[in-house]
Amino acid sequence: PVLRLLEAQLQDQRREHEEEMEALRNQVDLMQEELEKQQQAFLQTLQLSPEIQVELGLQQEITRLTNENLDLKELLEKLEKNEKKLKKQLKIYMKKVQDFEASQTMVPVERRPHERSMQVAVQRKEKDFQGMLEYYKEDEPLLIRNLIT
After folding, report:
1. What's the rounded Cα separation, in Å, for the pair 137 and 149?
2. Among candidates 98, 93, 108, which has minimal Cα distance to 147?
3. What local confidence, expressed as pLDDT, does residue 128 receive?
4. pLDDT by residue for the chain (149 residues), tens digit each?
5. From CA 42, how far away is CA 116, in angstroms rounded?
6. Which stretches within 48-138 are classed as H helix?
7. CA–CA distance from 141 to each of 34, 88, 99 (Å)?
8. Is the C-alpha dihedral spanning 46, 51, 57, 63 positive or negative?
9. Distance from the CA of 73 to the CA of which of 1, 81, 92, 136 falls in 20 to 30 A?
10. What is the pLDDT at residue 127?
11. How many CB atoms lie within 10 A of CB 145?
12. Reduced to 3 states, what is the DSSP secondary structure of residue 7?
């Protein structure tokens, strides 16, 4: 039984190896054909007059630069889009910070010590609830600011 299992595994490996070799042979054949085409094109280019060779070289360089420019334009558009998105987010966060600062000036002095004691209680409860916390609705700007900073 073990010998047959090993023989079957060996045959599977041999078949996989042969398939890989065939794929590699096909790839080499395709590369050889491409190389021959490029050599023929190169030889034809050498037979042309120097002026035509320069013109072909310039056309190839213009094509390459045009493609590069298109790629750079796409990248620029993506970056500009991302910049707009980030500016929008920044405005939102700045508004939240301003709202928070405005709410802090309106909070009575007696309430502030209560906030500190509540924060300590939340820190102790984090261990029990693993990330869940209880807070007053009016403390939301404070929590947001603490998360941001």
Report:
1. 20
2. 93
3. 46
4. 888 999 999 999 999 999 999 999 999 999 999 999 999 988 887 787 888 888 888 999 999 999 999 999 999 999 999 999 999 999 999 999 998 888 887 755 555 555 555 554 444 444 444 456 677 888 888 888 888 88
5. 79
6. 50-106, 111-129
7. 66, 19, 7
8. negative
9. 92
10. 47
11. 16
12. helix
Distance (Å, rounded) from C-alpha 130 to C-alpha 128? 6
Are the C-beta atoms of residues 144 and 96 closer than 8 Å to each other?
yes
| Tokens coding 59 | 């056309």
Q: Which residues lie closer than 8 Å to 48 by C-beta, 6 or more apart? A: 56
Length of the chain as a residue count? 149
User: CA triplet 83, 85, 90: central angle to 5 degrees?
Assistant: 90
Give the span between the Cα atoms of 6 and 40, in whole angstroms: 51
